[in-house]
Design a protein that fits this description.
Elements (H helix, E strand, L loop, with lengths): L9 H4 L2 E3 L3 H22 L9 E7 L1 H10 L1 H9 L9 H13 L2 E4 L2 E4 L2 H4 E3 L3 E2 L2 E2 L5 E8 L2 E12 L2 E5 L5 E4 L16 H11 L3 H11 L4 H22 L16 H6 L13 H14 L3 E3 L9 H13 L3 H21 L4 H4 L5 H15 L4 H13 L17 H20 L9 H14 L16
Parallel strand pairs: 2-4, 2-5
Antiparallel strand pairs: 1-12, 2-8, 3-4, 6-7, 8-9, 9-10, 10-11
Helix pairs in contact: 2-4, 4-5, 8-13, 9-11, 9-13, 11-12, 11-17, 12-15, 12-17, 13-15, 15-16, 15-17, 16-17, 16-18
Bound molecules: iron/sulfur cluster.
Iron/sulfur cluster binds next to α17.
Length: 464
């Protein structure tokens, strides 16, 4: 099914999961879990009682180049063993791979499948069967019965925890985790211009437009708001843990956590002299938690998970915003994320960090304008500013860890988002470059960007 922006809802963009990466941790874990489900329901009932069963997982492209630092191996093991990024405890998730190294057995119902991570998880290159990869983050899951290939699935981790399957003909089947009923929506749109038009025509607020669409897709407003509440709580919890935890982040870079120290030295409001470090500290707090493999929300990815919680928390403290306003802000932010996903990409491996922190900045700026009472034109303008000033930003994390430059980059993005919102609110929303146009440029820039700057650990800061 062709990707359509109005089908991607707030709960698709904001997923509660586990750090450090949505494309390299959450996506592979969900993919492994989904492969396990297919085995359980369709494949294993057809194998012989005494068959010897063995699994293999192949990681290609960027997943292979930076997967060790991103915990891709541990995430795949956890998914194969039936753990879920949202519903399983983070400590349990990271305990699976060491356990499989000792006892290499995946249990699915009564079936015992051999899977020894060191031996059966393969880190491969940029071609599959001598053909170019369908996506920089490609995985192949295989089941062998008595050493003969019985079943395989190719799954792509396309950013933000979204996954897609490749069908037998080699076509991408759309987001496997967001299959929606084929119904007509009250407010269809696929571009920013169309979204602006449906809001103007209907006279509805932008969040009510999305709520009406979601209701037709089967999600009631009450349920949506309940889930958004859980998302806001998870974001806040993450900030709280972040500003109370110190120590060294895992992975070998010896990056010292600093949110706690910065927070402790935050001056009282009266002594801030206009220089409010709160958004930066909150963003760093969340991204340090993410880097430590903790519980975070994709916004739209894990690498960019700190920016939106930082902006929401700061605005809540500054303006005493209600819970409903904060939810409405998330809904508006999700529209921008959906437009980027549809017309450009939210994957650092596909278009660089402009797709992650750039997108998050645009989402946050748009949500901030909505929460502060701006109109739809100002919302679009803020999102455009957020993307425009991240165009061309590369993705070059050192050692494949989501630490340098990712953590600080969220702090910079949060400040830019607040500035973009303030600039838009101070204007009448008139601007020359549309959001649709800037998304087109973002995609072209991402395609032109040298591969070594797209999450491959072969260029830029990754070289030290
Ligand atoms: S540099 Fe940006 S895109 Fe790359 S992993 Fe870090 S946050 Fe994600």
């Amino acid at each position: 099914m062709k990707l359509q922006a109005d089908r991607i809802g707030p709960l698709d963009m904001f997923k509660i999961g586990v750090g450090p990466s949505s494309s390299h941790t959450v996506g592979p874990m969900v993919a492994a879990l989904q492969f396990r489900k297919v085995l359980e329901e369709r494949v294993l009932p057809q194998v012989g009682d005494d068959a010897r069963l063995r699994l293999e997982v192949e990681l290609y492209g960027s997943l292979s180049a930076t997967g060790v630092g991103h915990g891709t191996d541990g995430a795949v093991c956890a998914g194969l063993q039936g753990l879920h990024p949202r519903f399983s405890q983070t400590d349990d998730i990271w305990a699976v791979m060491p356990a499989l190294e000792k006892e290499p057995t995946v249990l699915i119902g009564d079936f015992k499948l051999t899977f020894q991570p060191t031996e059966h998880l393969k880190w491969l290159g940029w071609t599959m069967d001598v053909k170019p990869l369908p996506h920089p983050n490609t995985m192949r899951f295989r089941l062998f019965e008595n050493e003969l290939l019985k079943f395989e699935q190719i799954i792509l981790s396309v950013g933000g925890g979204f996954i897609e399957r490749l069908d037998a003909a080699g076509s991408r089947t759309g987001s496997a985790d967001t299959e929606e009923p084929d119904v007509e929506l009250p407010y269809p749109f696929n571009t920013a211009e169309e979204f602006l038009a449906v809001c103007a025509r209907s006279g509805e607020t932008p969040w009510n437009v999305i709520i009406a669409n979601q209701e037709v897709l089967g999600l009631s407003e009450a349920e949506l708001r309940k889930q958004l509440d859980a998302i806001l709580d998870t974001m806040d919890d993450c900030i709280e843990r972040g500003v109370r935890t110190d120590g060294i982040l895992p992975g070998g870079l010896n990056v010292r956590r600093r949110a706690k120290d910065l927070y402790a030295r935050l001056p009282e409001p009266s002594a801030r002299n206009g220089n409010d470090l709160r958004p930066s500290i909150y963003a760093i707090a969340v991204n340090e938690e993410n880097a430590a493999g903790g519980r975070v929300v994709t916004a739209p990815t894990n690498g960019s998970s700190g920016l939106i919680p930082a902006v929401w928390r700061t605005l809540k403290e500054q303006h005493d915003l209600s819970r409903e306003t904060l939810q409405n802000g998330l809904i508006v932010a999700s529209v921008i994320g959906a437009l980027v996903k549809t017309h450009a990409s939210i994957s650092g491996a596909e278009v660089g960090c402009q797709g992650e922190v750039g997108t998050s900045c645009a989402m946050a700026a748009a949500g901030a304008v909505a929460m502060l009472g701006g109109n739809i034109k100002q919302i679009e303008q803020a999102a455009e500013i957020g993307i425009e000033h991240h165009l061309g930003m590369t993705c070059d994390p050192i050692k494949g860890l989501v630490q340098i430059p990712c953590i600080e980059r969220n702090a910079m993005g949060a400040v830019k988002a607040l500035n973009a919102a303030a600039l838009s609110l101070a204007s009448d929303g008139h601007h020359l470059i549309s959001l649709d146009r800037v998304l087109q440029v973002m995609k072209e820039t991402g395609l032109d960007m040298n591969q070594k700057y797209k999450e491959t650990a072969t260029g830029g800061l990754a070289l030290g």
